[in-house]
Amino acid sequence: MRFRVVAGALALAVAVVLSGCSGDPLAEKYGAGAGTGSGSLGGAFSEFAPDERGEPVVFEGTTDTGMTVSNEDFVGDVLVVNFWYAECAPCRAEAPDLRDLSQKYDGKGASFLGINVYDQADNARAFARTFDIRYPSIMDADSGQTRLAFVGHAPPSAVPTTLVLDKEGRVAARFLGQIMAASSLDTIIRELVAEEL
């Protein structure tokens, strides 16, 4: 049994590395069906009514550029939080959609934040350059402290995971795995920006 678990984990790791959008070989292989066993759980979505959202998430971390960011930096904004790492094929596949939506809502009531769960800052910055990602990413590989703030909302093994926090900082929606339709995230953001609490 232990051999099967180890072999399965190894196969999963190989699938993730070899698998994920146009112009990115890893993303293209993932999108073509290679590595579909990567465990991205694409399409798993939950939305929470205001009375089901619980308490605001309190977090703090250091970005790939050395800045400290916390939940207090986003008070009054809808916040899209994406858990990712550079060699994650579904992370690469969804990166252009996250980039486009972050630019669409820039200065319009919604902010974006990445939480990198595996890489060091150099890799995260290279990813940001490759995909023209302009929003910050907290580097959480060493401490895991930022992920701990989201316990109960973002399973640590489900990468990517994207959480959408309402204007009060409460989790209003969760995408486990790759966001399969950018329009779904767009709708959630738009509704939360318009929401009066």
Protein model, in words:
This protein is an alpha/beta fold. The chain has one domain: Glutaredoxin, CATH 3.40.30.10. The chain has a six-stranded mixed sheet, covered by helices on one side. Helix 3 links the parallel strand 4 and strand 5. Helix 2 crosses helix 3. The longest helix is centred in the first third of the chain and has 17 residues. The radius of gyration is 16 Å and the shape is globular. It starts with a helix and ends with a helix.
Strand content: 15-25%
Task: Domain count, please report it.
Answer: 1
The main pleated sheet reads as: 6 strands, mixed
Strand numbers in spatial order across the main sheet = 1-8-7-4-5-6
CATH topology: Glutaredoxin
Supply Rg: 16 Å
Report the order of strands and helices: HHEEEEHEHEHEEH
Output mean pLDDT.
83
Q: Pairing-aware structural class of the strands and helices? A: alpha/beta
CATH superfamily: Glutaredoxin
CATH architecture: 3-Layer(aba) Sandwich
Low-confidence stretches: 1-22, 29-40
CATH class wording: Alpha Beta
In helices, the fraction of residues equals 25-40%
Give the oligomer, counting copies of the same chain as homo and different chains as hetero: single chain
Distance between the first and last residues' Cα: 51 Å
Give the overall silhouette: globular
| Total of helices | 6
Strand elements, count: 8
